[in-house]
Amino acid sequence: MTEKYRKVAYYPGCALEGTGHAYNRSTKEVGKALGLELVELENWNCCGAMEVKNVDPKLQTFLSARNLKIAEDMGFDTVMAPCNGCYHNLKKAEYDLSHDAGSRETVAKLAAKSGDQPYEAGNVETIHALEWIRDAIGTDELHKRIKNSLNGLKIANYYGCMYTRPRHIFPEKDKGPGSESTSKPHFMDDLLAAAGAVNVEFPLKTACCGGAHTLSDSDTSTRLVLNILTTAEACGAEVIATECPTCHSGLEMHQIRAEKVLGKKTNVKILYFTQLLGMALGLSARKVGVNENFSESRDLLKAKGLG
Amino acid sequence: MPIHEKHLIRPENLVRNDKLAIEGVDVSGDWSTFIQTRVITDYNESLQDEIAALPGGEFIHRCWQCGSCTNSCTVNALNPDFNPRYWIYLIRLGMEQELLRDKDIIWQCVSCNKCTYACPRDVVPEAVMHATAHWLELKGYVPEKPSVVFDDVFSGQVFAKGKIEEGRLMRKFFVRTQQKLAQPWLIAMVKGLVSRLPITLLMRLGLAGVVHPRTRNWGRTRDAINEYVGEQNAKHRSALGLPAQSTESHS
Fold it and tell me: Is pLDDT at B247 greater than 60 in this prediction?
C-alpha cells in the first residue's frame, strides 16, 4: 500500500444519493475495509451530468469546476468520483480549462457573479473509484486481504462510455503497460481477478447502454441494453460488474423492461464492482447494499458462498 | 458495419405513365419510367454557419467526410438512417431540405462519444448532432423532442437547486411528455425493490422526494446561471436570424 490516494476528497454526485445509493454505500464500505479515507466535498453541486452540456457546454464546465474548487479549498489535490458521469465531467472541465480560453473566461465570469473564486486548471486531480483502489492498494495487496474469494464467479466487466471516451480528456490513459486502456479497459478486471473472479472475454466493455436517453428514448435504450445482457450471457458471464450508477440502473431497468415489453428474459445478474469487492473482503451482502439493487442476485450469491 | 447510404432515386422522384403516347407511339407502362430531373436550387448558404454558431457545432468545418463517425455510431447500428457523416455533408453543402427529411431522428444521439473518439479531425460529431437537434428546434422544424424535455427539466432543476433528485425529475419528465407513470415495467421494478428494502431506507427515499436535496447558498449562482442562459439564448437566436424571445426562466 502506498500513501498515494490514502486520503482523498470524495464527490459522490446526485445519482449516488438516489438510485445509485448502493454504489455509494459499497464504495464507502470498501474504503473503510481497506483503510482508505474519504472526505466528502462540502456543499457540492451537480456536475451537469449528460444534460447541462446540451443546454450549454461551458455551463457544465462551470458546474464541474465549482466542485474542483471546493476540493482545492478543503486542502485536497485529489478528488475521487465513483460515478462515470461525474468523473467524466470533472475531467472534461479540467481539460477545457487548460485548453480553452473561452471556457476559462465563462467560468471566471460566472464564479465572480456567484461570489466564488474560479477554479484554475492543474490544482486538483480527478480519479475514478477504480483508479483509487488500484493505485492506493494495488492488486497484489488486495489479493492478500481477500477473506472470502469470489471463487471463480464468472464476470463480464462493463465500463460504459464515459470512463474512456473521448480519449483526449484522459491524458493519463493509453500510456502503455500499467496504464488504463481506452479501447480495452482492464482496471476493473484486474481488481476482480485479484478477488478471485474469472473475467470472461467480453467484447462490449465500452458499448453504450443508452443511458442518456434511458427515459426519453426507452426503446432504443432497451435494445442497446438487451444486446449487452445477451452478449454477456453468451460469453458465459453469471454477473455483469458495473462502475457507473447510470449504466447500472440502466441495465437493471431495461433488463426488466426487455422482459415486460419485448418478452426477452435474461438472467445475468448486475452488481457494482464495489459490492463484489466488499463481499470478497468479508462484508455481508446487506452491508454493501445488494438488497438495494433492482436486480435480484441474492440467490446466486448465496449459492456461491458470498455475502 | 458498412456505411449505409441513401438512395438518390426515391419513389417520389419516379414518373410512370399508365397511358402515354409520344408522337403517336404508345409508351405506357413500366418501361417508360422516368426519373425526375434533380436540380437543387434551394440551398441555404448559411446553414453551416448557423450550426457553427450553436454550442457544439463550432468544428463542423473540419470534416473531410471519412465516415468514421457513422461507422462507429451506436444508433446507426440500430437504425441505418441515423447517419452523422451524411448530415454533416448536407449541412456543409447547405442542403437544408435534404437534412429535414431526417429531422425526427437526429435527436436520438445517445452521446456515447464513439464518433468523437474515432474522428481524425476533431469535429466532435456528438456535439454537432446536439447542435443540429438544437437548430431544428430553434427554427421550429420539430416540436420539442423527449430528450430536449429531459435536458430541460434536468438542467432546470440543477440551475434552481444545485442538485438533482431523481424521483422528482422522473415525475416532472413523465408529466411534460404526457406519459403515464404507471408503466408495467416500472411497477415491476418498484415492487421488487420494495419487497427487499428495509423500511427505514424506504422512508429516507420517500423523504428525499419531499425535502429536495439542494446545494446551500445557491441563490447567487442560480441567478448568474439563469442570466447566462438568457444571454446565450439571445445570442443563438440572433445568429439564426430569429426574433428575440421573451426571457424564459427555469423553474
Answer: no
